[in-house]
Every structure is written in structure tokens, then in C-alpha cells.
Design goal:
- About 30% of the residues lie in helices and about 45% in strands.
- It contains two helices and four strands, in the order E-E-E-H-E-H.
Length: about 70
Amino acid sequence: MVDGLAPVSFQRGELHLVVRNVPARVCPGCGEAYVDEEVALSLLQRAEQIYQAGVLDGVIDYEGFALK
């Protein structure tokens, strides 16, 4: 596993959201990516806010996404 960046996708009901450039540990062999618990929690909380705001589709960069 190496430090890298990976996209993370969310789908809930009609929500389809992709967050690009998320810090992750990435397998150089298969490309599977794992985010740490703090990043995952931040992503889930922000995705819930976006869902509650009524946004249905989006592609967003991680920088600034999880900080709001």
C-alpha cells in the first residue's frame, strides 16, 4: 500500500456524487484504495449535507469539500 489519491463515489437514492483526489492508501497492484477513518467520516458527513440540500449529481474535488 502506498499513499496516493483516489476517487470516492456515493450513491443514495437519487444522489450520485463523486469526490476526486481523496487522500488514500492505494494498492499499486490492483488500484484498490482505502481511506482512513477520519477522512471517511468527514466524507460521509459532507455527503449527507449535500444530500439534505437537495443536490442530486456532482463531481467535486476533495480539497475544500470536507472542510465545509
